[in-house]
Amino acid sequence: MISAEDEQPIVGASVLLKGTQIGTITDMDGKFNLRHVPESAKTLVISYIGMQTQEAAVKPQMHITLVPDAQQIDEVVVVAYGTQKASSLTASVSSVRANALKDVPSSSFDQMLQGRASGMSVTTPSAGVGQAPVVHIRGVNSITSGTSPLYVVDGVPIQSGDLAGGVGNHNALADINPADILSIDVLKDAAAAALYGSRAANGVVLITTKSGKEGKVTVTYDGYVGFSNKTKFIDMMNAREYVDFKNMALRNAYGTDIASELPGMGFTPSVWGDKVFNLMTDSKGNVIDTDWSKTVFQNGFTQGQTVSVNGGSERVQYYVSANYNTQKGIVKGDDYKRLGGKANLTVKATDWLKLGFNGNVASSTTKQTDAARNGSNFSVGGFPRLALINAPNIPAFNEDGTPFYEQKGLGYGPNAVFNTFSNPAALLSLNNGTSVNVTRIISSFFGELSPFKGLVLKTQYSIDYSDIENRNFRSPQHGDGVNQKGYAFNVAAKNNIWTWTNTATYDFSLGNHNFNLLAGMEATETHYQYWYGERYGLTDDKFTQFEGPFTNADGGGDEDNNSMVSYFGRINYDYASKYLLSVNYRRDGFSALSRENRWGNFGGVSAAWRVSEEPFFKPLKTYVDDFKLKGSYGVVGNTNIASYASRSYYSSFYYGNNGTYFIKQIADPNLKWESSEKYDIGFSAQLLGRINVDFDYYYTKSSDLILEVPQAPSKGLPGNILTTNAGKMENKGIELTLSADIFKDGPFKWNSSFNITTTKNKVLELAGGVDNILGWDDSKLENNNITVVGKSIGQLYTHPTGGIDRETGRRIFYSPEGEKLLFDYTTDSGWIHEDGTAYEGEVKPVISGGTLPTWYGGWNNYFEYKGFDLSIFFQFSGGNKIYNGTKATVSDMRFWSNSKEVLNNYWTPERKDAMYALPVYGDNYSNGSAMALSDWIEKGDYLRLKNISLGYTFNTKKWSKAIGISKLRIYAQAQNLFVITGYSGMDPEVLTNTTNAVLSPGTDKNTLPQARTYTFGVNLSF
Question: How many structural domains does the chain have?
C-alpha cells in the first residue's frame, strides 16, 4: 500500500473486511496479510488518517494507492524558521507542492512557478538559455535597491538573480535541481516574512527539498527528453522585394538622380542609373536570396535525468540524488549543461539529540553567441536581431561553404553604412561568444537538542559558495571585434556566504491556551572577490582564448565584504484552535550602514478568527466546513545595499603615466534601509468538503527609497549627486484562489484550481529636485520609460503620434500645444505644419501608459481515470502597455530591415489607410528608430496555454515481485502551445530587454519569443 502523493509505503493503515471485525494494519513496508478470510467476504475497507477511505474487491494479491483527503488533512506549511499547520496560519502564504510541477520540464524551478501562486508574478524575458526570470511578489517595492524576493533553501538564504555579472547569463536558481524539491512556500505579507527582517521587503520564497523516510530503500528515476522550436517570427522580404523596396525608398528621398547624392549617403560614387541596391548571383547565375532566420535559429533539445535513493530506519534517514541536465536553445550557439548531486542525512543519535547534513552541489556551463541576447533597436550584438535586419541579397556562405565575410551586395561595394553588417554564420564559426562556468555548493550542518518535552534547541551552520569563471571572445575577422582587432575578456570570481543560526522553540498548552515560542540569533557574512583581464589586438586570429598573442592588455579586480547580526523571536498563540495570534520581531545590524543607522527593528503581528468553530455557526456546517477571518500588519526592510554605500572612498587611475586618486563617492552618514509597511486582510473557507477559497486584500507602502539626489556643482561631489533615502511608493491589490474537487469519489477525478492577483503601483514621492527618473535602454540612444510621482513606475515615454496622413503619407506628430505636424525627411527642419511650412519648435515625449501588469494568474485542471492523468494549465496576464520597438527595427528606412509587413502596408495614393509612412531612405524618425512613437504602443493582455500533460501510471503489482518495480509512469507534455493576445509582436510576455527591469519595463525590442517544447518522460521507482 502506497501514497499517491509520494509513492511511499503507508505504515499503520487500517485494513478491514467490510461487515466484520476481521482486520489488520500495514507493516513498515506498507504490506498487510489477512488469513482465514470467509468466502462470503467480498470487500475490503482501507482507511488512514489524512487519506480518503477506499473500498476494494478482495483478491489474493492487491496493490492499493491511497489518495490524500483535503477535508481531513491539516496541511503542514513551511514558515520562517519552522513549520505550521495550515489551519493555524494567520499570515498570507501561498504553497506549491512538487506534484503540481512534476511534468513541467525546466532547468530552474523559478520558471515553473509562473501562474501557480497568487501574488507572485514571474516573467521570463525570452527563450534564451540561462536567463533568470524576473519575480515580483505583490508588486514592485523599490526603485534602485532590487525587487527580487529572498530565497531560502532548507533554512539557507541563498544568492539569486544572474551570477554571470553581465558577461553572459547564469540563473543562480538553476543550480537547484527541480526534481529534488518537495515544496515551495511563498511568504507574502509582513507577518509571514518579518522574521527575515531587513531582507523581506520583496517577500520570501522557502524551498524545501526532499529528505529520507523511515522504511525500505526506494530507488527512483525521473527522466525526460524534449524538443523545442520558436513559436512565432516575422515574415521577411525576399531578395528581389528588398532591392526594389530600398531603391524605391531612395527615389522617394533623392529623386531619380540618385548618383549625385551618393557621396553624402556614404556610397562610393558611380553611374548606375537610379539603382543602388542590386541582386547578387552565384557562379551559376542563381540569385542570392538568404533567409537569415535559418542562420540564427535551430530546433532546440533538452533532457534531464535524476536518480535518487531514499530510505532509513527509526534512527537514520537519508536521501541521495544525482542529476544531469542539458539544454540546446532555439538560438544557435545557446547551450546549457548542469551536473549536480544532493545528499540529505538525518541521524537520531539519542532520544534527545538529532544531527543532520544537507548538501547540494552543481557544476554548470552556459554558452552563448556573442551576446545571444535581445538587442536594442541599434544593438549589433543582439544575435536574434540579426535575423530581422540583415539584407537577403547578401549570402550567408560562400560557394565553398565557408561563411561570407565580404562587405558587398548593396550595389556599390564596401561603404561606411554597410560596415555594421554581422553575419551570424561567421560569428558562430569564429567562436564569437561567451561561456559562464559555475561551481556551486549549498550545504548546512545542524544539531538539534530536545532536553524535555516541548523544547527544541537547534544550531545550524550553512554556506552558499560559488566559483565563477566568465569568458568572452570576439574575433578580429568579423563582428564586434573588428575595430578592436580581436578582443578577449576573462573574469574569475568567488562568492562565499556563511550563516550561523541558533534557535530555541518551545511548545506548551495550558488548558485550551496553546503556545509556540521561538527565539533566535543569526550571524551572516558575505565575502566576494573577483579578478578580470581584457586583451586587445590579436596577432594570430587562430587563437580564441584570453591566452592568445594579444598586443594590449588590461586588468583589475575588487574585494567586497559585509556582515549582519540578527536577533529574532515569535509568539504563536491560539485558544482552542479558534482565536489565533502571532507576533514576530527581528533586530538586524548591517555593516554596510553607518554606526548610527546600522541597527534596524522589524516585525509583524497577525490574528485570525476561525468563525466556523463558534456555536452559532453550526447550522452552516452542512455547507461550510471551515471559515476563517484574518488580518496582519508589519514592517520589513530591503537590505540590497552596496557594502560601502554609507562611506566616502577614493578610486584611482593613470594620468600621464602617473597614479592618481580621485573622490569616487561621498558618504551620506544618514543612509538607512528602505522599509515597507504591509497591511493584509482576508478570509479562507472550505465549502461542501470539496471547494476551497482564499481571499486577501493587501497594501504596501515603501518608504526611504534610496535615490540619487542632484547636488549643486559647488559642493564638488562626484557626478553632482548624493545617494540618500528620499522616495516613497505604494502597491495595493487583491488575491483570490479557488480550488475544487469537482469529482473525487469515483474512478473519474477532476480537480480545478484558479488564482488571480490584481496590483496597482504608484510612486508617492521622489527626492527634492528630482521631477522624474528616466529609464534608458542599454544603447543609450533611446529612452522609452519615465518614472514620476503619481504614476506607476516605468511609464512609457513616447512622442505623440497619430498614424499616417492620408494625403501625403507622412507620419503625424503632435506638438506640445497639440498641433498636428507632419514629418518630412527631405526638409531641413523635418517637422512641418500641414501647410508645408517649417515648424520651429520641439516635439517632446509624453507619458504614454503603464507597463506593469495590473492582473495576472493561472488556471489548472487535473483529470484522472483508471491510471490515466491529464493536466491542462493556462497562465494569463494583462492590464499593461507594451512598446513594440520591434516595429521600429523592421521598418527602419536604411539598408537594414526588410519586414514583409512593411512591404504590404506602407502608404501609397491607393493605400491611404496604411500603417507605415511613405518609404523615404534615411528616415529613421517616421518609423521610431530615432525616437519612440506612441503609434507603437499596444495592449499587453494575453492568455497562454502554458502546459498540457498526459500520463499513464501502470499497475505494477504483477512486476513488483518479479523485478521490484513499485511505480511506473510515462507521460507526454507540451509547453507554450499557443497564446491568445491582441499584441502584434512576437511575444506579449515582455518585461524589458535592458539591464534595468525596474525603470525600463514593457519595452519589446526584438524579444526572442518563448519556445514551444514537446517533452516525453518517465517516472520509475523500485
Answer: 2
Phi, psi dihedrals of residue 211, rounded to the nearest 5°:
-135, 170
Judging by DSSP bridges, how do beta strands 748-758 and 868-878 pair with one another? unpaired
Other CB atoms within 10 Å distance of the CB of residue 600:
21
Say if CB 116 and CB 185 are below 8 A apart: no
Q: Is 60 exceeded by the pLDDT of residue 70?
A: no
What CATH number does the domain containing 14 carry? Answer: 2.60.40.1120
Kindly state whether residues 32 and 95 are assigned to the same domain: no
Decide: 843 and 822 in contact? Cβ < 8 Å. no
14, 119: one domain: no
Largest CA distance in the chain: 108
The answer on pLDDT for 372 being more than 50 is no
> What letter represents residue 938's amino acid?
E
On average, the pLDDT of the chain sits at: 86
User: What confidence tens digit (pLDDT) does each residue in 698-736 have?
Assistant: 999 999 998 877 776 766 666 667 788 889 999 999 999
Encoded amino acid at 585, one letter: Y
Closest CA to 945 of 860, 832, 844: 860
Instruction: Using alpha carbons, list the distances in angstroms from residue 805 to 219, 252, 368, 609, 850.
Output: 70, 16, 44, 64, 27
User: Quick one: what percent of the chain has pLDDT higher than 70?
Assistant: 90
115 and 178 fall within a common domain: yes
Name residue 793's beta-bridge partners: none
Cβ neighbours of residue 715 closer than 8 Å, sequence gap 6 or more? none
The answer to whether 292 and 390 are in contact (CB under 8 A) is yes
Surface-to-core class of residue 434, CB atoms within 10 Å of its CB (0-12 exposed, 13-18 middle, 19+ buried): buried
Write the CATH number for 122: 2.170.130.10
Contact 919, 903 (CB under 8 A): no
Domain assignment present for residue 216? The answer is yes
pLDDT one-digit tens code per residue, 329-338 = 999 988 999 9
Q: Reduced to 3 states, what is the DSSP secondary structure of residue 846?
A: strand
Cα–Cα distance measured from residue 126 to residue 278, given in angstroms and rounded to the nearest whole number: 35
Long-range CB pairs of 770-775, under 8 A, 24+ apart, other chains included: 770/707, 770/709, 770/710, 770/726, 773/143, 773/707, 773/999, 774/999, 775/994, 775/996, 775/999, 775/1000
Give the structural domain span for 141.
Answer: 76-229
- For the whole model, what pTM was predicted? 0.89
Residue 974, beta-bridge partner list: 948, 1014
Asked, for residue 372, whether it belongs to a domain, the answer is: no
Give a yes or no: residue 616 inside a domain: no
Least confident of 92-96, 468-472, 477-481, 761-765: 477-481
Placement of cell 532590487 in the chain: 146
Which residue matches cell numbers 559642493? 715
Residues 23, 147: one domain?
no
SS3 244: helix
Say if residue 8 is in the same domain as residue 129.
Answer: no
Same domain, 50 and 108: no
Residue 590: how many CA atoms within 13 Å on its side-chain side?
Answer: 25
Q: Which cell numbers in the block locate residue 88?
A: 493555524
The reported pLDDT for the residue numbered 1000 is 84
Q: Cell 558562430 identifies what position?
A: 428
Q: What is d(CA 209, CA 346) in angstroms, rounded to the nearest whole number?
A: 13
Instruction: Indicate the SS3 state at residue 901.
Output: helix
Choose among 583, 580, 589, 590: nearest CA to 605: 583
CA distance 821 to 798: 16
Q: Which domain-ending residue is among 197, 229, 261?
A: 229
> 520, 238, 271: which is closest to 392 by C-alpha?
238
Whose CA is closest to 224, among 949, 971, 963?
971
Q: What number of residues does the chain have? A: 1022
The predicted pLDDT at position 533 comes to 86
Residue finishing a domain among 229, 257, 282:
229
Let me know if residue 817 belongs to a domain. no
Chain position carrying cell 547569463: 169
Q: In angstroms, rounded to a whole number, what is the distance separating the alpha carbons of residues 511 and 731?
A: 42
